[in-house]
Design goal:
The chain is of the alpha/beta class. Helices cover 38% and strands 25% of the residues. It folds into two domains: 3-78 and 152-238, Rossmann fold (3-Layer(aba) Sandwich); 86-151, no CATH class. The protein has helices at 41-49, 71-77, 94-103, 111-121, 136-148, 166-181, 194-200, 218-221, 225-238, and strands at 3-12, 15-25, 30-34, 56-61, 64-65, 79-82, 154-158, 186-190, 203-208, 211-216. The structure holds adenosine-5'-triphosphate. Residues 3-234 form the ABC transporter domain.
């Protein structure tokens, strides 16, 4: 297993938010995480990325225990993370954003690395354009290009299709498929859109109330009685 966690528990005060979560991803595999609102998906991504320390449990990267390793060190090991909102530096041009990303790496990456990364995600915009004026899909592509030039081994993604429509979702789908299949990146993906999950994930885990209640292939995971109950009850409560 390339990247995994083992028996993760998380409490906020006395409140348990994650209870005994174990999962992992292989190189070139896409693992999906779904679950109703408040299930603990984002909290788990925060723990996997190193932004939050779990109350209990371990995170393992290529067999090494990285539980105590902070976010920036995990990034150097090859872990990358994207967020639900594609926040870019509004006052910098696309070229300046890419340059800042190149210079955040030691030794500095070259403009060839940046161009290569832009090509991988199909980012074709005027380099002088202000990043703040990009629409959602190109913001996501720019942020992904900044990560890809570091050649990550593992990518953690929180709702990469949020704010996208139709053909744009298909484009993200193709990019993620390419990263996994051609570049061998292990991807852990939190996503509400089940069609995206079904299209690209090999396995899906379902969280509910901080517990892992099912793990299966995407087209089978909703056959599990606990998964149906979690979604049905949530829908009923919301009605
Ligand atoms: N810093 C925090 N302090 C206290 N409680 C928190 C904190 N962060 C999250 N929670 C609680 O933990 C639970 C899980 O939240 P989390 O955001 O991980 O769920 P989620 O599955 O990502 O939900 P959504 O799909 O709505 O984004 C929620 O009940 C939330 O209110």
């Amino acid at each position: 297993m390339l990247f995994s966690c083992d028996n993760i528990h998380m409490h906020f005060g006395a409140r348990p938010v994650l209870q005994g979560i174990s999962l992992g991803v292989h190189a070139g595999e896409v693992l999906g995480i779904v679950g109703p609102n408040g299930a603990g998906k984002t909290t788990l991504l925060e723990i996997l990325s190193g932004r939050t320390k779990p109350t209990q449990g371990r995170v393992l990267f290529e067999g090494q225990d990285v539980t105590a390793m902070p976010l920036h060190q995990r990034a150097r090991c090859g872990l990358a993370r994207t967020y639900q909102s594609p926040v870019v530096p509004e006052q910098l041009s696309v070229d300046q954003v890419l340059k800042a990303a190149r210079q955040a790496f030691t030794p500095y990456l070259t403009s060839h690395h940046a161009q290569w990364a832009c090509d991988q995600v199909g980012l074709a915009v005027n380099p002088a354009q202000m990043a703040g004026s990009l629409e959602t899909l190109n913001r996501r592509k720019l942020l992904l290009a900044c990560l890809l030039m570091r050649k990550p081994k593992v990518l953690l993604m929180d709702e990469p299709a949020a704010g996208l429509l139709g053909a744009e979702v298909d484009e993200i789908d193709s990019i993620l498929r390419y990263l996994a299949q051609q570049m061998g990146v292990g991807i852990i993906l939190v996503e509400h859109r089940l069609e995206l999950m079904t299209a690209i994930a090999q396995r899906v885990v379902v969280l509910d109330g901080g517990e892992l209640i099912a793990e299966d292939k995407p087209h089978r995971v909703f056959d599990h009685p606990r998964v149906r109950a979690a979604y049905f009850e949530t829908a009923q409560e919301a009605a």
